[in-house]
Amino acid sequence: MAINVIDEKCKGCSICVKNCPFDAITMEGKLAVIGTSCTECGVCVEKCPFDAIEKTEVEKKNTQDISAYQGVWVFAEQRDGKIMPVVMELLGEGKKLAKEIGTELCAVLCGHNVDFLADELFAHGAEKVYIADHGELNTYRTDAYTKVIYSAIEKYKPEIVLLGATHIGRDLGPCLAVKANTGLTADCTQLEIDPVGKYLKQTRPAFGGNLMATIVCKDHRPQMSTVRPGVMDKAQYDRSLKGEVVKLEVEFNDGDIRTKVIDIVKTVKNQVSLTDAEIIVSGGMGLGKPEGFELLQKLADKLGAMVGASRACVDAGWIDHSHQIGQTGTTVKPKIYFACGISGAIQHLAGMQNSDYIIAINTNEAAPILETADFGIVGDLYQVIPTIIEELDKLEE
Length: 397
Ligand code: FAD
Ligand code: SF4
Ligand code: SF4
What we know:
Bound molecules: flavin-adenine dinucleotide, iron/sulfur cluster
Oligomer: single chain
Distance between the termini: 73 Å
Structural class: alpha/beta
Strand order of the largest sheet: 11-15-10-5-8-9-16
């Protein structure tokens, strides 16, 4: 795109100057001039009463030979020598994608003395593991990780790069994409290969979760996505699987890394591992009061389950954010999900609708959650849950 002023039509009224949200237009005598801070938003095109500003398509020539890019890469995020669970999910999904485009599945591992983790990555399906080992990579820092992984991307040219949408993945992914001059789709919940074009179709919630957007990156490589933890199936573990280790050259010069880790302070709180839970008992505003979570905890204890919550309860201060399930909370995929007093807003469903079985308890038979649920109980949770607990007690006797 390009924004141009048609000199002959410009009357010098300066309406465009006042309307440009980016202060990108100045008047040179009686002529409007578009400056370098123009974002091509198009507001001035609409506002000029004399049709003196036009937006034109400029054909961008991409000189990148995209056919040179091969392989699906998964960023094997590790912390303190432990691979993050989302990596196994990315390997599971990456395997399917690699099979569909007939390429290999690789993992990229950064850290210090982390070679021993390669076996775990092979056992989860990686055929090749690129390892960058250096003291400076011991703790994650944007500059250091970006430098080594970008160098590897330049050298080995992967077709697809997947990262977990963790704090680290969300920081690293965009930096790599900018360096590689490619696109990145953040927070994907679904990935598939276009059967004809063989490019990656990256789907993510958009507009507050009200619709799903599928984004493609046809002309640039690698195609990059961050993927929400807990959404994809984990790769099968098979100890007999082996692969190739490729050591990456790592060298840092003065000024390469602009930050220094002085101290790491870990917050001490009961970490809620909802993504790994097989059963989740979740509560919503139908609980009526914060103490309602004590009843849910009772049921959860009986079932060996974790307690989840809707955002409304978190916003009300009834329970900590670490329990929140949904679009702006954790995405879960347990065997059984109890939704107690939860209406089933789209933003909540986005985080739990892939559960194997959903059991909803709600007083309102028209509540949307009952449409998604496999089993719906229309009733007051303060009567239904104690009855379930009683029945479970009988089974124990
Ligand atoms: P309500 O909608 O108030 O529903 C309460 C339900 O309890 C009702 O269906 C009612 O019939 C039932 N009920 C009442 N009394 C009883 C009883 N005694 N027994 C049984 N049932 C009873 N929400 C999330 O959960 N997670 C998110 O991540 C999230 N992200 C969001 C992001 C954005 C950008 C926006 C705009 C919203 C987000 N929300 C999220 C909020 C979401 O839209 C809903 O407002 C929220 O999920 C509603 O919570 P709720 O179901 O607990 O409450
Ligand atoms: Fe010229 Fe149109 Fe801007 Fe007026 S609004 S100064 S006519 S370009
Ligand atoms: Fe300003 Fe947008 Fe017009 Fe550019 S396209 S000059 S940013 S109003």
